[in-house]
């Protein structure tokens, strides 16, 4: 039986651990706080991040990472992007030498501008062939409710991608394999920034034409950056690009879209953060790192730039809209 450790018991870590367990994988979750691990282990619920969802009895939980990692064939990294490095530094010595490291995080590290798989290589020294990424239209609450969805497991080693695929395939969760790690990571990081933009637009009362235009031009930005970094455009036309963009930009369940909505309504960053109930909206930090990454490759990303200006330079959403529409006209 495949054994997995899920490190991080937030909403997606918990929902994905449930998927793994329901696919027949032996799963132990690690939670930072003992009270979260205790609740999962004893009440089979995570009342802090996924209240009301019954978790499988077989799902074990601990706040001891050494115990969680013991014998794990698949190590699922389910903490936010900006905290992955620090967490991984503490876990690295306890990770099995042949384990597959599966990243769930959708962001670009601030400062270093590294993708999560690059952070993992840097911290653990693991060969890139051991590192896999899971990305797609996977709003945690819907997956936890067993609503059908597909996802992508990207790994340069196709045998490992297939092992991960088998470990999490269920009657409602359909993973596809792909060898394009860069494309999946860029799709995941960029869609959060575009979801913030969509939230801002809806917050100031704009309708579906605007949202569709932002999604489509956001996709163009994402593809430009991805291709510059070596991604395949087809990956970004797939689940980890268009699929996740559509889900995140359209759903009120998205933390990024909801965060942007509060800003569009005129709320402050603090108010938007409070509305996220302690959960992470990755695009708020990643808009800055994606923008810097794009600058370093000479890639134009006007929507991402506007999101950064609204979140971090005090520009109003109205001003950002005016600035975007005032740009020189050009061919599509
Ligand atoms: N929630 C969702 O629907 C989905 C989330 N993701 C991605 O998965 C990653 C994790 O997201 P969620 O589980 O939703 O986040 P969350 O905000 O619900 O939970 C974060 C988890 O990481 C833990 N953690 C450990 N060290 C931390 C630190 N230094 N700072 C903050 N938290 C720390 C927290 O205790 C918590 O258990 C993110 O990159 C997110 O973009 C991907 C797909 C779906
Ligand atoms: O990544 C997600 C869906 O695929 C979740 O998006 P949010 O982090 O905006 O909730």
TrEMBL record:
<feature type="binding site">
    <location>
        <position position="32"/>
    </location>
    <ligand>
        <name>NADPH</name>
    </ligand>
</feature>
<feature type="binding site">
    <location>
        <position position="282"/>
    </location>
    <ligand>
        <name>NADPH</name>
    </ligand>
</feature>
<dbReference type="InterPro" id="IPR006168">
    <property type="entry name" value="G3P_DH_NAD-dep"/>
</dbReference>
<feature type="active site" description="Proton acceptor">
    <location>
        <position position="191"/>
    </location>
</feature>
<keyword id="KW-0443">Lipid metabolism</keyword>
<feature type="binding site">
    <location>
        <position position="11"/>
    </location>
    <ligand>
        <name>NADPH</name>
    </ligand>
</feature>
<feature type="binding site">
    <location>
        <position position="244"/>
    </location>
    <ligand>
        <name>sn-glycerol 3-phosphate</name>
    </ligand>
</feature>
<feature type="binding site">
    <location>
        <position position="33"/>
    </location>
    <ligand>
        <name>NADPH</name>
    </ligand>
</feature>
<comment type="similarity">
    <text>Belongs to the NAD-dependent glycerol-3-phosphate dehydrogenase family.</text>
</comment>
<keyword id="KW-0444">Lipid biosynthesis</keyword>
<feature type="binding site">
    <location>
        <position position="12"/>
    </location>
    <ligand>
        <name>NADPH</name>
    </ligand>
</feature>
<dbReference type="Pfam" id="PF01210">
    <property type="entry name" value="NAD_Gly3P_dh_N"/>
</dbReference>
<dbReference type="InterPro" id="IPR008927">
    <property type="entry name" value="6-PGluconate_DH-like_C_sf"/>
</dbReference>
<keyword id="KW-1208">Phospholipid metabolism</keyword>
<keyword id="KW-0520">NAD</keyword>
<dbReference type="Pfam" id="PF07479">
    <property type="entry name" value="NAD_Gly3P_dh_C"/>
</dbReference>
<feature type="binding site">
    <location>
        <position position="49"/>
    </location>
    <ligand>
        <name>NADPH</name>
    </ligand>
</feature>
<feature type="binding site">
    <location>
        <position position="280"/>
    </location>
    <ligand>
        <name>NADPH</name>
    </ligand>
</feature>
<keyword id="KW-0547">Nucleotide-binding</keyword>
<feature type="binding site">
    <location>
        <position position="136"/>
    </location>
    <ligand>
        <name>sn-glycerol 3-phosphate</name>
    </ligand>
</feature>
<feature type="binding site">
    <location>
        <position position="256"/>
    </location>
    <ligand>
        <name>sn-glycerol 3-phosphate</name>
    </ligand>
</feature>
<dbReference type="InterPro" id="IPR013328">
    <property type="entry name" value="6PGD_dom2"/>
</dbReference>
<feature type="domain" description="Glycerol-3-phosphate dehydrogenase NAD-dependent C-terminal">
    <location>
        <begin position="180"/>
        <end position="321"/>
    </location>
</feature>
<keyword id="KW-0560">Oxidoreductase</keyword>
<keyword id="KW-0963">Cytoplasm</keyword>
<dbReference type="InterPro" id="IPR036291">
    <property type="entry name" value="NAD(P)-bd_dom_sf"/>
</dbReference>
<keyword id="KW-0594">Phospholipid biosynthesis</keyword>
<feature type="binding site">
    <location>
        <position position="191"/>
    </location>
    <ligand>
        <name>sn-glycerol 3-phosphate</name>
    </ligand>
</feature>
<comment type="function">
    <text>Catalyzes the reduction of the glycolytic intermediate dihydroxyacetone phosphate (DHAP) to sn-glycerol 3-phosphate (G3P), the key precursor for phospholipid synthesis.</text>
</comment>
<feature type="binding site">
    <location>
        <position position="106"/>
    </location>
    <ligand>
        <name>NADPH</name>
    </ligand>
</feature>
<feature type="domain" description="Glycerol-3-phosphate dehydrogenase NAD-dependent N-terminal">
    <location>
        <begin position="3"/>
        <end position="159"/>
    </location>
</feature>
<protein>
    <recommendedName>
        <fullName>Glycerol-3-phosphate dehydrogenase [NAD(P)+]</fullName>
        <ecNumber>1.1.1.94</ecNumber>
    </recommendedName>
</protein>
<dbReference type="GO" id="GO:0047952">
    <property type="term" value="F:glycerol-3-phosphate dehydrogenase [NAD(P)+] activity"/>
</dbReference>
<feature type="binding site">
    <location>
        <position position="106"/>
    </location>
    <ligand>
        <name>sn-glycerol 3-phosphate</name>
    </ligand>
</feature>
<feature type="binding site">
    <location>
        <position position="255"/>
    </location>
    <ligand>
        <name>NADPH</name>
    </ligand>
</feature>
<dbReference type="InterPro" id="IPR011128">
    <property type="entry name" value="G3P_DH_NAD-dep_N"/>
</dbReference>
<feature type="binding site">
    <location>
        <position position="255"/>
    </location>
    <ligand>
        <name>sn-glycerol 3-phosphate</name>
    </ligand>
</feature>
<dbReference type="InterPro" id="IPR006109">
    <property type="entry name" value="G3P_DH_NAD-dep_C"/>
</dbReference>
<comment type="pathway">
    <text>Membrane lipid metabolism; glycerophospholipid metabolism.</text>
</comment>
<feature type="binding site">
    <location>
        <position position="140"/>
    </location>
    <ligand>
        <name>NADPH</name>
    </ligand>
</feature>
<feature type="binding site">
    <location>
        <position position="254"/>
    </location>
    <ligand>
        <name>sn-glycerol 3-phosphate</name>
    </ligand>
</feature>
<keyword id="KW-0521">NADP</keyword>
């Amino acid at each position: 039986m495949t054994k997995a450790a899920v490190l991080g018991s937030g909403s997606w870590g918990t929902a994905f651990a449930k998927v793994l367990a329901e696919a027949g994988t032996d799963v132990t979750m690690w939670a930072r706080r003992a009270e979260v691990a205790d609740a999962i282990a004893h009440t089979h619920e995570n009342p802090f991040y996924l209240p009301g969802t019954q978790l499988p009895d077989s799902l074990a939980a601990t706040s001891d990472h050494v115990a969680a990692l013991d014998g794990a064939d698949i190590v699922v990294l389910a903490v936010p992007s900006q905290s992955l490095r620090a967490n991984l530094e503490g876990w690295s010595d306890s990770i099995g030498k042949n384990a597959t490291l599966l990243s769930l995080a959708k962001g670009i590290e601030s400062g270093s501008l590294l993708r999560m798989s690059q952070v993992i290589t840097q911290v653990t020294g693991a060969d890139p062939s051991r590192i896999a990424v899971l990305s797609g239209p996977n709003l945690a609450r819907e997956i936890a409710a067993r609503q059908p969805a597909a996802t992508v497991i990207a790994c340069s080693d196709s045998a490992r991608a297939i092992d991960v695929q088998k470990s999490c395939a269920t009657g409602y969760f359909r993973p596809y394999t792909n060898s394009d790690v860069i494309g999946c990571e860029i799709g995941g990081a960029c869609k959060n920034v575009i979801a913030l933009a969509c939230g801002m637009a809806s917050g100031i009362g704009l309708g579906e034409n605007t949202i569709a235009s932002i999604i489509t031009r956001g996709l163009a930005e994402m593809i430009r950056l991805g291709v510059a970094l070596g991604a395949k455009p087809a990956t970004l036309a797939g689940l980890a690009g268009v699929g996740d963009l559509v889900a995140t930009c359209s759903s009120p369940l998205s933390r990024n879209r909801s965060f942007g909505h509060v800003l569009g309504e005129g709320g402050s960053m603090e108010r938007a953060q409070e509305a996220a109930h302690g959960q992470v909206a990755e695009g708020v930090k990643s808009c800055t790192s994606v923008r810097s990454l794009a600058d370093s490759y000479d890639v134009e990303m006007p929507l991402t730039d506007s999101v950064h200006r609204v979140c971090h330079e005090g520009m109003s959403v109205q001003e950002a809209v005016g600035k975007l529409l005032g740009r020189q006209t050009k061919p599509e």
